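User: Hi! I'm working on a homework problem where we have to compare a predicted structure to a textbook description. Could you give me the structure for the chain below?
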Amino acid sequence: MNEQRMHPLFCAALSFVLLSGCEQRAVHHPAEFRAERLRFAPPPVERVMLDCGAPCYLLPDRRLPLVDFFCIAPAGSAYDPGLKEGLAALTATVMRTGGTAELPADALDRELELRAAEVSAGTDQDAGTVALSCLSSVMDSALPYTLDIILHPAFAPEKLELRKAQMRELIRRWNDEPREIAEREFQRLVYGNHPYAHPVIGEPGSMDRISRDDLVAYHREHFRPSLMIFGVAGDFDRAAVIGLLNRRFGSARAPAPPPIPPVPTPAALAVDYLWKATEQAHLLIGNTGMRRDDPDYLVMTLMNDILGGSAFSSRMLERVRAEKGLAYHAGTNVSACLQAGLVYAVCQTKERSATTVLRIIIGEMERIREESVTPGELERAMDAAVNRFVFRFTRPSQVVTEMAWIEFYGLPRDYLATYVSRVMKITGNDILRVARAYLHPDRATILVVGERDQFEEPLDTFGPVRTIPLPRTE
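Assistant: Happy to help. Predicted C-alpha coordinates:
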Protein backbone atom coordinates (compact mmCIF):
# COMPACT_ATOMS: atom_id res chain seq x y z
CA MET A 1 0.00 0.00 0.00
CA ASN A 2 1.29 3.46 -0.87
CA GLU A 3 1.74 5.71 2.12
CA GLN A 4 2.18 9.47 1.91
CA ARG A 5 3.38 11.58 4.82
CA MET A 6 1.24 14.60 5.53
CA HIS A 7 2.93 17.96 5.81
CA PRO A 8 3.17 19.27 9.41
CA LEU A 9 1.07 22.33 8.53
CA PHE A 10 -1.74 20.06 7.35
CA CYS A 11 -1.54 17.86 10.46
CA ALA A 12 -1.76 20.89 12.74
CA ALA A 13 -4.73 22.34 10.89
CA LEU A 14 -6.55 19.00 10.80
CA SER A 15 -6.07 18.47 14.54
CA PHE A 16 -7.43 21.95 15.16
CA VAL A 17 -10.57 21.23 13.15
CA LEU A 18 -11.21 17.89 14.83
CA LEU A 19 -10.76 19.30 18.32
CA SER A 20 -12.92 22.30 17.49
CA GLY A 21 -15.64 19.99 16.22
CA CYS A 22 -15.74 18.15 19.53
CA GLU A 23 -16.81 21.33 21.28
CA GLN A 24 -19.77 21.95 18.98
CA ARG A 25 -23.28 21.47 20.21
CA ALA A 26 -25.36 18.76 18.55
CA VAL A 27 -26.66 19.89 15.16
CA HIS A 28 -29.64 18.59 13.24
CA HIS A 29 -28.93 20.09 9.83
CA PRO A 30 -25.64 20.74 8.01
CA ALA A 31 -26.48 24.44 7.78
CA GLU A 32 -26.38 24.65 11.58
CA PHE A 33 -22.82 23.34 11.89
CA ARG A 34 -20.18 25.87 12.93
CA ALA A 35 -16.45 25.24 13.04
CA GLU A 36 -13.95 27.75 14.30
CA ARG A 37 -12.51 29.79 11.47
CA LEU A 38 -8.93 28.63 10.93
CA ARG A 39 -5.97 30.99 11.00
CA PHE A 40 -3.23 30.34 8.50
CA ALA A 41 -0.83 32.42 6.46
CA PRO A 42 1.01 30.78 3.54
CA PRO A 43 4.80 30.94 3.90
CA PRO A 44 6.57 33.68 1.93
CA VAL A 45 7.76 32.64 -1.52
CA GLU A 46 10.78 34.18 -3.23
CA ARG A 47 10.29 35.47 -6.77
CA VAL A 48 13.40 35.50 -8.97
CA MET A 49 13.65 36.77 -12.55
CA LEU A 50 15.63 34.43 -14.77
CA ASP A 51 17.97 35.78 -17.45
CA CYS A 52 15.35 35.11 -20.12
CA GLY A 53 12.86 37.32 -18.31
CA ALA A 54 10.71 34.52 -16.89
CA PRO A 55 9.68 34.59 -13.22
CA CYS A 56 10.63 31.67 -10.99
CA TYR A 57 9.07 31.11 -7.55
CA LEU A 58 11.21 29.42 -4.89
CA LEU A 59 10.16 27.91 -1.55
CA PRO A 60 12.90 25.92 0.22
CA ASP A 61 11.69 23.33 2.75
CA ARG A 62 14.21 20.80 4.05
CA ARG A 63 11.95 18.83 6.37
CA LEU A 64 11.45 16.13 3.74
CA PRO A 65 13.94 15.02 1.04
CA LEU A 66 11.55 15.91 -1.79
CA VAL A 67 11.60 18.44 -4.62
CA ASP A 68 8.83 19.63 -6.90
CA PHE A 69 9.35 21.62 -10.11
CA PHE A 70 6.46 23.16 -12.01
CA CYS A 71 6.00 25.41 -15.03
CA ILE A 72 3.16 27.03 -16.95
CA ALA A 73 3.18 27.99 -20.63
CA PRO A 74 0.59 29.95 -22.66
CA ALA A 75 -0.31 26.77 -24.50
CA GLY A 76 -3.95 25.90 -23.84
CA SER A 77 -6.55 24.51 -26.20
CA ALA A 78 -7.83 28.03 -26.90
CA TYR A 79 -4.76 28.42 -29.12
CA ASP A 80 -5.64 25.38 -31.27
CA PRO A 81 -5.77 26.31 -34.96
CA GLY A 82 -9.05 25.89 -36.79
CA LEU A 83 -9.74 22.28 -37.88
CA LYS A 84 -6.83 21.09 -35.70
CA GLU A 85 -8.61 21.06 -32.37
CA GLY A 86 -6.71 18.96 -29.84
CA LEU A 87 -3.28 20.12 -31.02
CA ALA A 88 -2.39 21.68 -27.66
CA ALA A 89 -3.35 18.51 -25.78
CA LEU A 90 -1.42 16.32 -28.23
CA THR A 91 1.64 18.54 -27.96
CA ALA A 92 1.72 18.44 -24.17
CA THR A 93 1.22 14.68 -23.97
CA VAL A 94 3.73 13.72 -26.66
CA MET A 95 6.29 16.17 -25.25
CA ARG A 96 6.31 13.85 -22.25
CA THR A 97 5.93 10.47 -23.97
CA GLY A 98 7.86 11.11 -27.21
CA GLY A 99 11.44 11.30 -25.93
CA THR A 100 13.97 14.09 -26.36
CA ALA A 101 16.78 15.00 -28.74
CA GLU A 102 19.20 13.21 -26.40
CA LEU A 103 17.18 10.15 -25.36
CA PRO A 104 14.56 8.01 -27.14
CA ALA A 105 11.23 7.75 -25.38
CA ASP A 106 11.74 4.35 -23.77
CA ALA A 107 15.27 5.20 -22.62
CA LEU A 108 14.04 8.45 -21.05
CA ASP A 109 11.29 6.58 -19.22
CA ARG A 110 13.84 4.09 -17.87
CA GLU A 111 16.12 6.86 -16.59
CA LEU A 112 13.24 8.55 -14.81
CA GLU A 113 11.95 5.27 -13.38
CA LEU A 114 15.40 4.38 -12.04
CA ARG A 115 15.28 7.62 -10.08
CA ALA A 116 11.64 7.24 -9.01
CA ALA A 117 11.07 10.63 -10.66
CA GLU A 118 7.59 11.49 -11.89
CA VAL A 119 7.28 13.88 -14.83
CA SER A 120 3.88 14.88 -16.17
CA ALA A 121 2.56 17.26 -18.80
CA GLY A 122 -0.94 18.45 -19.55
CA THR A 123 -3.14 21.24 -20.81
CA ASP A 124 -6.44 22.98 -20.22
CA GLN A 125 -8.20 25.79 -22.07
CA ASP A 126 -5.62 28.45 -21.17
CA ALA A 127 -2.30 26.79 -20.42
CA GLY A 128 0.07 23.89 -20.79
CA THR A 129 1.97 22.60 -17.77
CA VAL A 130 4.97 20.39 -17.05
CA ALA A 131 5.76 19.10 -13.54
CA LEU A 132 8.50 17.05 -11.87
CA SER A 133 8.36 15.36 -8.47
CA CYS A 134 11.42 13.52 -7.17
CA LEU A 135 13.73 12.87 -4.25
CA SER A 136 16.20 15.65 -3.63
CA SER A 137 19.05 13.14 -3.99
CA VAL A 138 18.28 12.67 -7.71
CA MET A 139 17.29 16.20 -8.63
CA ASP A 140 20.68 16.93 -10.23
CA SER A 141 19.81 14.45 -12.99
CA ALA A 142 15.99 14.45 -12.94
CA LEU A 143 15.63 18.20 -13.48
CA PRO A 144 17.91 18.25 -16.58
CA TYR A 145 15.82 15.45 -18.09
CA THR A 146 12.69 17.51 -17.41
CA LEU A 147 14.22 20.60 -19.00
CA ASP A 148 15.07 18.50 -22.07
CA ILE A 149 11.40 17.54 -22.31
CA ILE A 150 10.46 21.23 -22.21
CA LEU A 151 13.17 22.48 -24.56
CA HIS A 152 13.96 19.63 -26.96
CA PRO A 153 11.07 17.16 -27.28
CA ALA A 154 11.55 14.61 -30.06
CA PHE A 155 7.83 13.98 -30.70
CA ALA A 156 8.61 10.41 -31.75
CA PRO A 157 6.22 9.54 -34.64
CA GLU A 158 5.17 6.20 -33.13
CA LYS A 159 4.26 7.89 -29.81
CA LEU A 160 2.31 10.54 -31.68
CA GLU A 161 0.33 7.94 -33.60
CA LEU A 162 -0.36 6.02 -30.39
CA ARG A 163 -1.71 9.12 -28.66
CA LYS A 164 -3.80 10.08 -31.68
CA ALA A 165 -5.35 6.61 -31.65
CA GLN A 166 -6.14 7.01 -27.95
CA MET A 167 -7.73 10.41 -28.56
CA ARG A 168 -9.82 9.04 -31.44
CA GLU A 169 -11.11 6.32 -29.13
CA LEU A 170 -11.99 8.86 -26.43
CA ILE A 171 -13.91 10.89 -29.01
CA ARG A 172 -15.57 7.76 -30.43
CA ARG A 173 -16.96 6.98 -26.99
CA TRP A 174 -17.88 10.48 -25.89
CA ASN A 175 -21.60 9.91 -26.44
CA ASP A 176 -21.70 6.97 -24.02
CA GLU A 177 -22.42 9.00 -20.87
CA PRO A 178 -25.35 11.47 -20.83
CA ARG A 179 -23.65 13.62 -18.18
CA GLU A 180 -20.55 14.05 -20.34
CA ILE A 181 -22.69 14.83 -23.38
CA ALA A 182 -24.61 17.49 -21.46
CA GLU A 183 -21.51 19.22 -20.04
CA ARG A 184 -19.61 19.18 -23.33
CA GLU A 185 -22.48 20.41 -25.48
CA PHE A 186 -23.50 23.03 -22.95
CA GLN A 187 -20.01 24.53 -23.15
CA ARG A 188 -20.23 24.44 -26.93
CA LEU A 189 -23.62 26.17 -26.94
CA VAL A 190 -22.65 28.92 -24.51
CA TYR A 191 -19.33 29.76 -26.18
CA GLY A 192 -20.52 29.44 -29.79
CA ASN A 193 -17.63 30.24 -32.13
CA HIS A 194 -15.19 31.18 -29.38
CA PRO A 195 -12.05 28.99 -28.94
CA TYR A 196 -13.29 27.90 -25.50
CA ALA A 197 -16.19 26.10 -27.20
CA HIS A 198 -14.36 23.01 -28.42
CA PRO A 199 -13.27 20.17 -26.11
CA VAL A 200 -9.62 20.15 -25.07
CA ILE A 201 -9.15 16.66 -26.54
CA GLY A 202 -10.27 17.77 -30.00
CA GLU A 203 -13.16 17.17 -32.36
CA PRO A 204 -14.19 14.23 -34.54
CA GLY A 205 -11.76 14.06 -37.45
CA SER A 206 -9.31 16.62 -36.05
CA MET A 207 -6.67 13.99 -35.21
CA ASP A 208 -6.44 13.10 -38.91
CA ARG A 209 -5.53 16.70 -39.75
CA ILE A 210 -2.68 17.03 -37.23
CA SER A 211 0.87 16.11 -38.20
CA ARG A 212 4.16 15.94 -36.32
CA ASP A 213 5.16 19.20 -37.99
CA ASP A 214 2.13 20.83 -36.35
CA LEU A 215 3.36 19.72 -32.91
CA VAL A 216 6.86 21.01 -33.61
CA ALA A 217 5.51 24.39 -34.72
CA TYR A 218 3.09 24.66 -31.79
CA HIS A 219 5.84 23.82 -29.33
CA ARG A 220 8.20 26.36 -30.91
CA GLU A 221 5.64 29.13 -30.54
CA HIS A 222 4.17 28.37 -27.11
CA PHE A 223 6.85 26.67 -25.00
CA ARG A 224 9.51 29.39 -25.10
CA PRO A 225 11.13 29.79 -21.65
CA SER A 226 10.75 33.57 -21.71
CA LEU A 227 6.96 33.11 -21.99
CA MET A 228 6.71 30.66 -19.10
CA ILE A 229 6.39 30.80 -15.30
CA PHE A 230 8.45 28.44 -13.13
CA GLY A 231 8.36 27.23 -9.55
CA VAL A 232 10.53 25.03 -7.32
CA ALA A 233 9.67 23.82 -3.82
CA GLY A 234 11.27 21.47 -1.32
CA ASP A 235 14.80 20.39 -0.48
CA PHE A 236 16.93 22.02 -3.18
CA ASP A 237 20.04 24.15 -3.59
CA ARG A 238 18.86 27.61 -4.64
CA ALA A 239 22.05 28.69 -6.42
CA ALA A 240 22.37 25.39 -8.28
CA VAL A 241 18.77 25.46 -9.51
CA ILE A 242 18.86 29.08 -10.66
CA GLY A 243 22.22 28.51 -12.34
CA LEU A 244 20.94 25.45 -14.20
CA LEU A 245 17.79 27.23 -15.41
CA ASN A 246 19.77 30.23 -16.63
CA ARG A 247 22.30 28.04 -18.47
CA ARG A 248 19.62 25.99 -20.17
CA PHE A 249 17.24 28.83 -21.03
CA GLY A 250 19.74 31.52 -21.95
CA SER A 251 18.67 35.13 -22.26
CA ALA A 252 16.66 35.06 -25.50
CA ARG A 253 13.20 36.66 -25.43
CA ALA A 254 10.29 35.49 -27.59
CA PRO A 255 7.13 37.31 -28.66
CA ALA A 256 3.97 36.22 -26.87
CA PRO A 257 1.27 34.44 -28.89
CA PRO A 258 -1.80 36.50 -29.80
CA PRO A 259 -4.15 36.88 -26.82
CA ILE A 260 -7.26 34.75 -26.50
CA PRO A 261 -10.19 36.84 -27.82
CA PRO A 262 -12.85 38.14 -25.42
CA VAL A 263 -15.99 36.07 -24.92
CA PRO A 264 -19.25 37.62 -26.20
CA THR A 265 -21.90 38.28 -23.56
CA PRO A 266 -25.23 36.40 -23.83
CA ALA A 267 -27.81 38.22 -25.92
CA ALA A 268 -31.01 36.18 -25.64
CA LEU A 269 -32.55 33.14 -23.99
CA ALA A 270 -31.77 29.84 -25.73
CA VAL A 271 -33.62 26.62 -24.91
CA ASP A 272 -31.90 23.57 -26.38
CA TYR A 273 -32.95 19.94 -26.34
CA LEU A 274 -30.85 16.90 -27.14
CA TRP A 275 -32.44 13.47 -27.31
CA LYS A 276 -30.68 10.65 -25.50
CA ALA A 277 -32.24 7.53 -24.03
CA THR A 278 -31.45 7.82 -20.35
CA GLU A 279 -32.98 7.07 -16.98
CA GLN A 280 -32.62 10.69 -15.88
CA ALA A 281 -32.90 14.04 -17.59
CA HIS A 282 -29.75 16.14 -17.43
CA LEU A 283 -30.38 19.85 -16.96
CA LEU A 284 -27.93 22.72 -17.35
CA ILE A 285 -28.74 26.42 -17.30
CA GLY A 286 -26.33 29.34 -17.25
CA ASN A 287 -24.22 31.78 -19.19
CA THR A 288 -20.74 33.20 -19.51
CA GLY A 289 -19.30 34.58 -16.29
CA MET A 290 -16.13 36.47 -15.44
CA ARG A 291 -12.40 36.44 -16.08
CA ARG A 292 -10.14 35.05 -13.39
CA ASP A 293 -8.59 38.47 -12.79
CA ASP A 294 -11.96 40.11 -12.11
CA PRO A 295 -11.84 41.90 -8.72
CA ASP A 296 -15.24 40.38 -7.91
CA TYR A 297 -14.08 36.78 -8.33
CA LEU A 298 -14.17 36.05 -4.58
CA VAL A 299 -17.63 37.56 -4.33
CA MET A 300 -18.71 35.26 -7.16
CA THR A 301 -17.37 32.20 -5.31
CA LEU A 302 -19.34 33.09 -2.18
CA MET A 303 -22.49 33.72 -4.22
CA ASN A 304 -21.99 30.34 -5.87
CA ASP A 305 -21.60 28.65 -2.46
CA ILE A 306 -24.89 30.10 -1.24
CA LEU A 307 -26.83 29.44 -4.42
CA GLY A 308 -25.70 25.91 -5.22
CA GLY A 309 -21.99 25.35 -4.73
CA SER A 310 -22.08 24.09 -1.16
CA ALA A 311 -22.32 20.32 -0.86
CA PHE A 312 -24.65 20.47 2.15
CA SER A 313 -26.40 23.77 2.71
CA SER A 314 -26.99 25.61 -0.58
CA ARG A 315 -30.35 27.05 -1.49
CA MET A 316 -30.69 24.92 -4.60
CA LEU A 317 -29.90 21.66 -2.83
CA GLU A 318 -32.30 22.55 -0.03
CA ARG A 319 -35.16 23.18 -2.46
CA VAL A 320 -34.62 20.40 -4.98
CA ARG A 321 -33.42 17.61 -2.69
CA ALA A 322 -34.45 18.33 0.91
CA GLU A 323 -37.86 19.93 0.28
CA LYS A 324 -39.00 18.28 -2.95
CA GLY A 325 -37.01 15.04 -3.05
CA LEU A 326 -36.55 15.40 -6.81
CA ALA A 327 -32.82 14.77 -7.14
CA TYR A 328 -29.85 13.47 -5.20
CA HIS A 329 -27.85 16.53 -6.15
CA ALA A 330 -28.56 19.93 -7.65
CA GLY A 331 -26.01 22.70 -7.62
CA THR A 332 -24.12 25.46 -9.34
CA ASN A 333 -20.60 25.81 -10.67
CA VAL A 334 -18.34 28.75 -11.47
CA SER A 335 -15.28 28.67 -13.70
CA ALA A 336 -12.95 31.54 -14.58
CA CYS A 337 -10.23 31.70 -17.23
CA LEU A 338 -8.04 34.24 -19.03
CA GLN A 339 -11.32 35.22 -20.64
CA ALA A 340 -14.83 34.79 -19.28
CA GLY A 341 -15.61 31.43 -17.72
CA LEU A 342 -19.04 29.98 -16.97
CA VAL A 343 -21.63 30.31 -14.21
CA TYR A 344 -24.31 27.64 -14.39
CA ALA A 345 -26.61 25.26 -12.56
CA VAL A 346 -26.68 21.51 -13.11
CA CYS A 347 -29.03 18.74 -12.03
CA GLN A 348 -30.02 15.21 -12.90
CA THR A 349 -33.61 14.24 -12.13
CA LYS A 350 -36.37 11.89 -13.24
CA GLU A 351 -37.60 12.88 -16.66
CA ARG A 352 -41.10 13.27 -15.29
CA SER A 353 -39.88 16.04 -12.95
CA ALA A 354 -37.43 17.75 -15.32
CA THR A 355 -39.52 20.86 -15.98
CA THR A 356 -40.45 21.20 -12.30
CA VAL A 357 -36.78 21.19 -11.32
CA LEU A 358 -35.98 23.63 -14.10
CA ARG A 359 -38.53 26.06 -12.68
CA ILE A 360 -37.03 25.74 -9.20
CA ILE A 361 -33.52 26.42 -10.52
CA ILE A 362 -34.66 29.49 -12.46
CA GLY A 363 -36.59 30.69 -9.43
CA GLU A 364 -33.54 30.43 -7.16
CA MET A 365 -31.40 32.28 -9.70
CA GLU A 366 -33.96 35.06 -9.80
CA ARG A 367 -34.29 35.16 -6.00
CA ILE A 368 -30.57 35.67 -5.37
CA ARG A 369 -30.69 38.53 -7.92
CA GLU A 370 -33.65 40.18 -6.23
CA GLU A 371 -33.03 39.93 -2.49
CA SER A 372 -29.98 40.02 -0.28
CA VAL A 373 -28.68 36.80 1.24
CA THR A 374 -29.18 36.34 4.98
CA PRO A 375 -26.41 37.07 7.49
CA GLY A 376 -26.29 33.36 8.35
CA GLU A 377 -25.84 32.34 4.71
CA LEU A 378 -23.08 34.88 4.25
CA GLU A 379 -21.28 33.79 7.43
CA ARG A 380 -21.39 30.11 6.42
CA ALA A 381 -20.05 30.93 2.97
CA MET A 382 -17.22 32.99 4.47
CA ASP A 383 -16.33 30.17 6.89
CA ALA A 384 -16.26 27.67 4.04
CA ALA A 385 -14.08 29.91 1.86
CA VAL A 386 -11.54 30.54 4.61
CA ASN A 387 -11.34 26.92 5.75
CA ARG A 388 -11.03 25.62 2.17
CA PHE A 389 -8.21 28.08 1.66
CA VAL A 390 -6.22 26.56 4.53
CA PHE A 391 -6.46 23.01 3.23
CA ARG A 392 -5.30 23.99 -0.26
CA PHE A 393 -1.75 24.23 1.11
CA THR A 394 -0.84 20.93 2.71
CA ARG A 395 2.53 20.82 0.89
CA PRO A 396 5.07 23.51 -0.05
CA SER A 397 4.66 22.64 -3.74
CA GLN A 398 1.02 23.71 -3.58
CA VAL A 399 2.02 27.18 -2.41
CA VAL A 400 4.53 27.58 -5.24
CA THR A 401 2.09 26.22 -7.83
CA GLU A 402 -0.58 28.64 -6.62
CA MET A 403 1.85 31.58 -6.89
CA ALA A 404 2.67 30.57 -10.46
CA TRP A 405 -1.02 30.51 -11.38
CA ILE A 406 -1.55 33.86 -9.66
CA GLU A 407 1.10 35.38 -11.92
CA PHE A 408 -0.28 33.60 -14.99
CA TYR A 409 -3.73 35.09 -14.44
CA GLY A 410 -2.39 38.55 -13.65
CA LEU A 411 -3.53 38.65 -10.02
CA PRO A 412 -1.82 40.79 -7.35
CA ARG A 413 1.26 39.16 -5.84
CA ASP A 414 -0.16 39.58 -2.36
CA TYR A 415 -3.24 37.59 -3.38
CA LEU A 416 -2.59 34.77 -0.90
CA ALA A 417 -1.51 37.05 1.93
CA THR A 418 -4.68 39.15 1.65
CA TYR A 419 -7.10 36.35 0.75
CA VAL A 420 -8.76 35.95 4.16
CA SER A 421 -9.12 39.68 4.80
CA ARG A 422 -10.71 40.20 1.38
CA VAL A 423 -13.18 37.38 1.97
CA MET A 424 -14.17 38.84 5.34
CA LYS A 425 -14.94 42.23 3.77
CA ILE A 426 -17.60 40.82 1.41
CA THR A 427 -21.13 42.01 2.20
CA GLY A 428 -24.61 40.94 1.28
CA ASN A 429 -24.83 43.93 -1.05
CA ASP A 430 -21.71 42.68 -2.86
CA ILE A 431 -23.39 39.30 -3.41
CA LEU A 432 -26.51 41.00 -4.73
CA ARG A 433 -24.51 43.24 -7.07
CA VAL A 434 -22.51 40.37 -8.55
CA ALA A 435 -25.58 38.14 -8.91
CA ARG A 436 -27.32 40.88 -10.88
CA ALA A 437 -24.26 41.43 -13.05
CA TYR A 438 -23.49 37.80 -13.91
CA LEU A 439 -26.63 35.66 -13.43
CA HIS A 440 -29.04 36.10 -16.33
CA PRO A 441 -31.80 33.45 -16.28
CA ASP A 442 -33.79 35.58 -18.71
CA ARG A 443 -31.05 35.27 -21.36
CA ALA A 444 -29.30 32.10 -20.31
CA THR A 445 -28.60 28.95 -22.26
CA ILE A 446 -30.79 26.03 -21.15
CA LEU A 447 -29.84 22.53 -22.22
CA VAL A 448 -31.94 19.46 -21.45
CA VAL A 449 -30.67 16.01 -22.38
CA GLY A 450 -33.21 13.18 -22.17
CA GLU A 451 -36.53 12.06 -23.68
CA ARG A 452 -38.92 15.00 -23.91
CA ASP A 453 -42.04 12.87 -24.33
CA GLN A 454 -41.61 11.92 -20.67
CA PHE A 455 -41.54 15.53 -19.41
CA GLU A 456 -44.41 16.73 -17.25
CA GLU A 457 -44.99 19.82 -19.40
CA PRO A 458 -43.73 20.91 -22.81
CA LEU A 459 -40.19 22.28 -22.86
CA ASP A 460 -41.31 25.17 -25.06
CA THR A 461 -43.06 26.57 -21.99
CA PHE A 462 -39.69 28.12 -21.23
CA GLY A 463 -39.14 29.52 -24.73
CA PRO A 464 -38.70 28.44 -28.35
CA VAL A 465 -36.91 25.09 -28.37
CA ARG A 466 -34.02 24.28 -30.66
CA THR A 467 -33.45 20.55 -31.09
CA ILE A 468 -29.78 19.70 -31.54
CA PRO A 469 -28.55 16.35 -32.81
CA LEU A 470 -26.45 13.91 -30.88
CA PRO A 471 -22.88 14.89 -31.85
CA ARG A 472 -21.09 12.71 -34.34
CA THR A 473 -18.07 10.80 -33.07
CA GLU A 474 -16.12 10.13 -36.28
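For your comparison, note the following. Residues 335 and 341 are 5 Å apart (CA to CA). The radius of gyration is 24 Å. Good luck with the assignment!
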